[in-house]
Write a structure and sequence with these properties.
Blueprint: H1 3-10, H2 14-29, H3 39-54, H4 62-72
């Protein structure tokens, strides 16, 4: 990214910068195979998946986690 584009982004209102972040994140998430993963990260992901497949019960429902997080605010 060139310096003038970066500066232009930094002058946007916060709400527009947040929207830009969301748009960029969605564009990245739409191509998960293109997201680089280090060998260490792959090992950790494989370990977590194996643990979950052995025993999925320790997890929590998203609604419960979200509720707990939003109550903190």
């Amino acid at each position: 990214m060139n310096a003038s584009a970066r500066q232009e982004i930094l002058t946007l209102p916060v709400s527009e910068r947040l929207q830009l972040i969301e748009d960029i994140w969605e564009s990245i998430a739409s191509q998960p195979a293109d997201v680089p993963v280090t060998p260490e990260q792959r090992k950790e992901l494989d370990k977590r998946l194996a643990n979950f497949e052995r025993d999925p019960s320790p997890g929590e429902k998203w609604d419960d986690v979200k509720s707990r997080i939003t109550r903190r605010k």
